[in-house]
């Protein structure tokens, strides 16, 4: 089932779940410094230039979520006091992040929502539309 939005990062022997955030094992997980988890940032991930995280957190729904890097990173960032991760891995919308791509001056390839699932059942459709509207306006 395709879940999430953005670039896929398919792991070996990937069980059901979302390809964006889970890995077959911890060894498949990108190094924390490569994830660009601070909501919006330049990144050293080779297949993207930046990440944009208008929401964080998710719900584990299948065995494919067992090695979810987003959960691990969210807990790490919460412990570090990052305000966007005050709720840890609980689904949280960050309205203050919505317009960030509209302030970028140079084009870039963006990993949208690297720390959550935009199509999580508890994300209001109106919010999903706002995210897509920003993508459209930033294109
Ligand atoms: S918990 Fe959510 S973000 Fe993590 S692998 Fe599962 S569906 Fe993806």
Describe the structure.
With 139 residues, this protein is an alpha+beta fold. The protein has one domain. It is built from 3 helices and 5 strands, in the order H-E-E-E-H-E-E-H. The protein has a 3-stranded mixed beta sheet with strand order 1-2-5, with no helix packed on it. A two-stranded antiparallel ribbon has the order 3-4. The chain is globular, with a radius of gyration of 14 Å. The chain starts with 31 loop residues before the first helix and ends with a helix. Mean pLDDT is 80; it is low at 1-16 and 24-39. The protein binds iron/sulfur cluster. Iron/sulfur cluster binds at residues 3, 17-18, 21-22, 58, 60-61, 65, 68, 70-71, 117.
Query: Any idea what the shape is?
Result: globular
Alpha carbon gyration radius = 14 Å
H and E order: HEEEHEEH
Q: Tell me the count of domains.
A: 1
């Amino acid at each position: 089932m395709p879940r999430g939005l953005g670039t896929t990062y398919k792991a070996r022997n990937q069980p059901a779940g979302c390809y964006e955030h889970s890995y077959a094992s911890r060894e498949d997980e990108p190094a924390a410094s490569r994830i660009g988890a601070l909501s919006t940032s330049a990144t050293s991930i080779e297949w993207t230039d930046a990440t944009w995280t208008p929401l964080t957190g998710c719900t584990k729904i299948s065995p494919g979520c067992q090695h979810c890097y987003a959960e691990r990173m969210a807990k790490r960032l919460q412990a570090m006091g990052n305000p966007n991760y005050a709720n840890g891995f609980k689904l949280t919308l960050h309205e203050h992040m919505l317009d960030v791509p509209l302030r970028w001056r140079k084009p870039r390839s963006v990993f949208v929502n690297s720390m959550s699932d935009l199509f999580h059942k508890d994300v209001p459709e109106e919010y999903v539309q706002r995210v897509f509207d920003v993508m459209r306006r930033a294109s």
